Amino acid sequence: MMFGENCGMSSTISLPKCSCCHRHIMPNDKCVKFNCPNCGEVLVWRCESCREAARTYTCSSCNFQGP
Ligand SMILES: [Zn+2]
Ligand SMILES: [Zn+2]
């Protein structure tokens, strides 16, 4: 049995998740995305409300927390 890179259904659009509140980010959301300033490996997403509330995010790779 082979495991391809694309196993499963590819019809569902995978929305990015906010790194602060873990909600899905809508395409029309005024979100920001940037790489983790500590490890640079993880793309951090912040939704509009978290950006305005200046919530801290946690990097899923290095656990760096930042505003
Ligand atoms: Zn959020
Ligand atoms: Zn990181």
TrEMBL record:
> Signal peptide position in this chain?
none
One Pfam short name: HVO_2753_ZBP
Q: Taking every annotated instance into account, which residue ranges of this chain make up the domain Small zinc finger protein HVO-2753-like zinc-binding pocket?
A: 18-62
Domain of life (superkingdom): Archaea
Q: Matching InterPro entries, A to Z?
A: HVO_2753-like, HVO_2753-like_ZBP
Spell out the NCBIfam families in the cross-references: PRK14890.1
Alphabetical list of PANTHER family matching this protein: SMALL ZINC FINGER PROTEIN HVO-2753-LIKE ZINC-BINDING POCKET DOMAIN-CONTAINING PROTEIN, ZINC-RIBBON RNA-BINDING PROTEIN INVOLVED IN TRANSLATION-RELATED
What protein is this chain from?
Small zinc finger protein HVO-2753-like zinc-binding pocket domain-containing protein
